Amino acid sequence: MTVPLVLGIEDFENNPPTTIATIDASSTRHHTLIVGQSGSGKSNFLTRYVEEIVLRTGGRVILLDPNGDYGQISRIHDPVWEEDSIQRLSELSTRANIETLDESDSFSSKWFGTNFQYVGNWISAPDDTAQQGRISRAKLTVSWMYLTQADKALLLNVDPVTHPKLYAATRVLDDHLYETFRQGGSKYRLDDLSALARAIASDRTKSMPVTPDWDQFDSTDWMAAYSRFDELIRRFGIWASEDEVAPPVRVIVENGLEQKSSCWTLCVVGLATPPTHDEVTHEDSLLAADEVLSKVWRCALSGANSARQGAAKDPPVPDARVPIYVVIDEAQLFAPSAVSSPLQGRVREKIERLAAEGRKYGLVLVLSTQRPSKLSPAIVYECENHATLRIQSPVELDYAERAFGIKSDFLKKVPKYRKQGQTLLTGRWCGETPAGIDAREFRVSLARSRPGGADLRTEAWLDPAEYRDHPSRRPRTP
Ligand SMILES: Nc1ncnc2c1ncn2[C@@H]1O[C@H](COP(=O)(O)OP(=O)(O)OP(=O)(O)O)[C@@H](O)[C@H]1O
Ligand SMILES: [Mg+2]
Fold first, then answer.
1. What distance in angstroms lies between residue 377's CA and the mean position of ligand 2's atoms?
2. Nearest to 150 by CA among 165, 167, 166, 126
3. Which of 178, 241, 298, 404 lies at 20 to 30 Å from 445 by C-alpha?
4. Sign of the CA dihedral with 108 first, then 114, 120, and 123 last
């Protein structure tokens, strides 16, 4: 079964153009990498690609947004309907017998029927209400108590081999509070751990049910544990606070991935938006990404397990899983070729695992980067679909030639791309030709949802109102 996704125009230099550029939806099951220098149109490409997947397939998308470029994606960018290129695309879709979504009514009715989830400190928009409960917003928070032991040890920077005693002290406290919670007590946070460590250190715990193995630690150990917990509270701003009403990002991701009926189809995790602090640090972003990726992985594994159990039943239960697209803009921030912190290393490991093994669990990566050579090679080599927008750097071109297997004849054209969105498409989504895998050129069309990026508006600085009537700007009379 073929389902065409409409990406743009092939013969964009012609006036009017006559050929629509589509790819088959089934080719999106391969990991995808979009590369191009700043301003070449990567985020627009990513947005259009996501729109087509969401509207024409049953796939679900979780998008990690490090720059706040997708914070308005649920809204429609009405000026696009006035663009000649979009009107032409709509005509060409109709002519090619493809349902047109490049026209206000058809796009709006489908887009407004989509369930969106924003996780981050988003400002709600006036037309949220028009979408009648289809938009949910939640603050981006991470709960300490649900992190894995490996993540906790990494964050605390306590290695069981090199710091056995400190590791054991932090673990004993954590296990104690977790066990109390399991037996019907309340949830706990890092603050509770640091308070507990300090209380024991200053011997204020006579009333506490102290277990015998606590005796091996003295007050120096407890103070060391306290310092580690306290340092983490200060270092990150995204811990869930006591009065938090919104579920942590882990729960939101889980609800969507388990395909609960009213849950999101498109979830944007805004990593640039300030939660409680003045700014989100890169470490906060990494921790949130780490949590999202862990959850995505665990849900995919448990989904595969349920599918196996269903298949073994008599009669077999049909597998209703759909692909989950994990979209990461500026992917080099999360999976660079050279990591700069242990936490970044951990996030990269998770993306690498997803690249290597995700496809069999229905997980598909869609990544964008300015500099493919800065992205982990283990990930680059797993991407079988490539979109190369304008690149001028000889280093990056050389890398793309080797890593993507693009013939240099094709690649020569890339530095000459003048228009945003001009793309060289290589890999699986081009389709197979007798001579091997082909390459295609086209220009991706504008996305229809509203860009949330903070690009400078030309009118604001080249044509500001206060200079508009200045004599120097009047046309010269001969
Ligand atoms: N296909 C296109 N047709 C027309 N304009 C486009 C197209 N693609 C992008 N643009 C415009 O170019 C500008 C930059 O696009 P975009 O933000 O997608 O670039 P980018 O490669 O993601 O840049 P950065 O690396 O800085 O994030 C935007 O204002 C966008 O509207
Ligand atoms: Mg961008």
1. 21
2. 167
3. 404
4. positive
Measured CA to CA, the distance from residue 473 to residue 54 in angstroms comes to 47
Rounded CA Rg of the chain: 26
Whole-number percent of the chain with pLDDT over 70:
85
pLDDT recorded at residue 275 = 45
261 pLDDT exceeds 50?
yes
3-state SS record for 264-295: CCEEEEECCCCCCCCCCCHHHHHHHHHHHHHH
What are the structural domains of the chain? 4-142+244-459 (3.40.50.300), 144-235 (no CATH)
CA 190 to CA 199: how far, in whole Å?
14
Q: What are φ and ψ of residue 7, in 5° steps?
A: -100, -30
Q: Which amino acid is at 408?
A: S
Strand partners, 32: 366, 385
Backbone angles phi, psi at 441, to 5 degrees: -115, 140
Identify the three-state secondary structure at position 368: strand
Give me the residues paired with residue 61 across strands.
Answer: 266, 325
Predicted local distance difference test score (pLDDT) of residue 346: 96
pLDDT of amino acid 463: 65
What's the CA-to-centroid distance between 329 and ligand 2, angstroms? Answer: 7
- Inter-residue contact 61 to 267 (CB < 8 Å): yes
Ligand 1 mean position to 450 CA, how many Å? 12
SS3 430: helix
User: How far is it, in rounded angstroms, from Cα 407 to Cα 425?
Assistant: 12
Q: What average pLDDT is seen over the chain?
A: 87
Q: Which listed ligand is nearest to 371 at the C-alpha?
A: 1
* Amino acid in position 367: L
Backbone dihedral angles phi then psi of residue 404, each to the nearest 5 degrees: -95, -10
**CA 395/CA 305 separation, integer angstroms:** 44
Q: Rounded to an integer, what distance in angstroms lies between the CA atom of residue 191 and that of residue 268?
A: 29
User: What is the position in ligand 1's atom list of the atom closest to the CA of 455?
Assistant: 29
**Nearby residues of 422 by Cβ (< 8 Å), 6 or more positions away:** 12, 41, 389, 390, 441, 442, 443
Return the residue matching tokens 């209380």.
199
Per the CB < 8 A criterion, the answer to whether 444 and 41 are in contact is yes
Q: Is the CB of 335 under 6 A from ligand 1?
A: no
41 close to ligand 1 (CB < 6 Angstrom) = yes
Q: What is the pTM of this model?
A: 0.91
Distance CA 46, CA 35 (A): 11
Taking alpha carbons only, the member of 3, 248, 20 closest to residue 146 is 248
More confident residue, 258 or 372: 372
